[in-house]
Amino acid sequence: MEAAGPMTDEELAAIEELADAATPGPWHVRNLDDTYAMCLVAVATTPDTGRGERWPGFDHHEIVACTLIQEPRYADVADGRWDENARFIAEARQHVPRLIAEVRRLRGLLAEARHGHAEPAASPVGGHTAAQVKPEV
Q1: DSSP strands (E only) in the chain
Q2: Quick check: 93 and 26 in contact, CB under 8 A?
Q3: Geometric angle at alpha carbon 118, from 115 and 120, rounded to 5°
Q4: Which residue positions in the chain have pLDDT lower than 70?
């Protein structure tokens, strides 16, 4: 998907489908070792133990993605941001569904404000009610 203009409802629904189809969260960054005791940075369904387990001392079924595998060297991004990428992937699992819900909630409030509907008393948006939120043009 290339960003060009505001996100459509169809694009938002497609992102939601991707999130719903993925392995359930939460996901965690794990620092492990491969068979040669070289760094392996992974995103997993279980938290990091801090012990840097070496293969086969961890369950490979818990691994969702890897951002660094040094031996054999086949997951090693050129900019060296293995930890940052792993954290982004892990955090996105939890945050993407929340962001989708927030976009839909805010769109609903904007629609209410545009159409002049009476607003519910308990629908604050960043300390503002829907009537106080100015739609972007």
Answers
A1: 28-33, 39-44, 63-70, 73-76
A2: yes
A3: 120
A4: 1-3, 36-37, 117-137
